[in-house]
């Protein structure tokens, strides 16, 4: 039987089309697989895993994703779709299962217009297709042809795309696409900002037979949005189509009640103050109305009638001073800017608490004055329910007035405690006629149209920059002007009375705070710089300079020290009041640099599953440093993928490491230690590293390479400074590595700071001119020494920590440029690759850092030189049983053990230790050294057993 040919989608076609459609647009493209059948639970689960977003300027990343998805057997039971409009943030699934980032609220702009001419298998398919073809001919006569035509399946269905010369805002794009649907007679529901359409190059498999979604035609034609809409109007007129008729869509996102029938002005004038004592008070005494309440009144009145006459009539009496009185232009603008939503009584009460409201029967119902007026008017004309509801909403209301399809037409929340709300999520199905009372001011006040024009119109292409874009850029001075044009201008308001633009300080500070991630800890502002959170000396001046440059780019008169300082004080207030971003100093270690990633020059190397994957920088990954190397996966693929420079680097690094003439186990230990050092998220080992040996043996060369890798995140505080200088620890709070290139051999008197630094214990940092703060260090200690410093601390807790590498081989004389070759980006990248490789192998094997026999011998000698008890053990004065069954043979009198250590100390010229010190040392210290035969003595003939079950003895 011949082998059946397998058909896959073509990811190359898909990516080329997406690049073409989203050319020049900033944002995220949503890729969303949808199962062909709802009951296919397996495909549905897999589809959730493959749903992702990609940046429009990094669409090459989509190809691997789609290629793998197109070849997956389960995903062959899904259709592959993309979001026609770019989102300003990526899609992700919240803990409660909701998806965010894929709804129409997440769309900032439209790249063009689109339509779906589909054949549903209905009797009128032929007539509809014929009408669409006729409409396309009329448009062609007007100079409008589709920029792309895509065959969406096995029938005659087509997706049409018309690219614009410039992006338009989401509402304008939807309006034009709806008008296009009207002219073509196509599905109007497709004209939705969150719409997804089949990806060209994918397979249509709903019928069971795989059919490639093909591009029938494609060109580079672009149309001015206004000219395109005008052409639609001309085509509609020629074909006798009325495009002014509203298209009632369930996909319309508007929650305004302006689509409802208006209540007569006279009825509102007479009955609103009679039914609502609060409104009666505001009408009688307009000077008591605050600006937020005034905004709410505008929305409330507009929800009842779109005529502004009552808003003016009831605002005219306002006169609170020379600059605080009624002005017609400002009042009219406020009314126009409001969204016309019914504001609830509780919202007014929260802004302006009044006793008379609590005595009102309507207040207890948690309703809106607008709802009460509409009910009253309905009753007055002999109707029931809420007056003015559009037909699409009326059809969903039962006769008893209860909610239908999860929609409550009286008030929110629903009376049903089990009702799950979907409004505001991807699954929202709120209709344009819905009567939804609102509470938040953001839902009522919209941006002034003129400000919106400034926001979008200051660059030549009028492209819309996604709101999430600035989060990833960092507060860099070179983008201050661009940020002001696209985002900071939202804090600018036009004063019609004075005929000039004014800056709102509070809004400007809030926008700055929201757009640029920052955290406050260690007595300073830590700003995201595009790759990591950075603290710079003069942190406050950095923010102030950015504010000044942004303001000066719009109006130099705004960039005064008084204005800048005031905005900064507001910005800092936001930061300090934010419980998440004002981090407790002692808890910084739990928040920052805790994720298993290596931040490198070209991204974040994620090793969370033990296998390195390079990801894009994101402020959501909270790291405070960056390694000065690039991760090149080609190293793992072998020399065939290496460039000549990479091959040379590999030879140079291998030669360099071979000069040390380490044993294989010691070389493994060195590379593991380097990888562990760069794994700042890992503090489990509680070790520090010493390179020991005489001069000219490569200690300094190795440390200079480590310093080149870690750059400005290196400090050089000596052990003696840590013990004696109270400001020394403060220099290590933000450091990743501390390197001492030539350690002193002076006595190390206080070792507690070293134990705390390597043990991740709490320290106090003192800095000049700043408040002291507690911190838990995330750094690794390295030093080079000709001799090891003596210390009075003989504890196991200190001597278990150093990993000492014996550098005893003297280097030959090398060329002048030899060390320079070790610092090339290729050489540093290769050494980093080796370090990560050995580190991950260690962790995947479940091991700790390797200590070779020669390293262990040096460490125990260092211990013995400072501790006579350890020296006695190494010289065989004490022996230990291997098994408990031999314990009885290893019991000696206490006096004999004490005498033996006294004689041994006298022979070495060392200070004697007391009996209690000897026994305590054996109990608490040596039993922890797993390969040491350490236990306890019993002076009475009865062995004292420790957790290790071992008993030390004294030779006779």
Q: How would you characterize this protein structure?
A:
- This protein is an alpha+beta fold.
- The protein folds into five domains: 11-239, Alpha-Beta Plaits (2-Layer Sandwich); 265-312 and 334-418 and 429-443, no CATH class; 465-583, no CATH class; 635-854, P-loop containing nucleotide triphosphate hydrolases (Rossmann fold, 3-Layer(aba) Sandwich); 867-954, no CATH class.
- It is built from 34 helices and 31 strands.
- A five-stranded parallel β-sheet has the order 24-25-28-23-29. The chain has a four-stranded antiparallel β-sheet with strand order 2-1-3-9.
- β4 (92-93) and β5 form a beta hairpin.
- α1 (11-21) packs antiparallel against α3 and α17 (480-486) packs across α19.
- The longest helix is centred in the last third of the chain and has 20 residues, at 825-844.
- It is globular and about 115 Å long.
Summarize the structure.
The protein is an alpha+beta fold. Helix content is 37%, strand content 13%. α7 packs across α14 (369-380) and α24 (664-678) crosses α30.
* CATH fold-level label of the largest domain: Alpha-Beta Plaits
Structural class, please?
Answer: alpha+beta
Compute the separation of the termini in Å. 87 Å
**Low-confidence spans:** 245-258, 391-463, 930-956
Order of adjacent strands in the largest pleated sheet = 24-25-28-23-29
Total discrete domains: 5
Output the radius of gyration.
37 Å
CATH architecture designation of the largest domain: 2-Layer Sandwich
How would you classify the quaternary structure?
Answer: single chain
CATH class of the largest domain: Alpha Beta
Q: What proportion strand?
A: 5-15%
Region (Disordered): 411-435
GO molecular function: ATP binding; hydrolase activity
Domain SF3 helicase: 665-820
Biased composition (Polar residues): 424-433
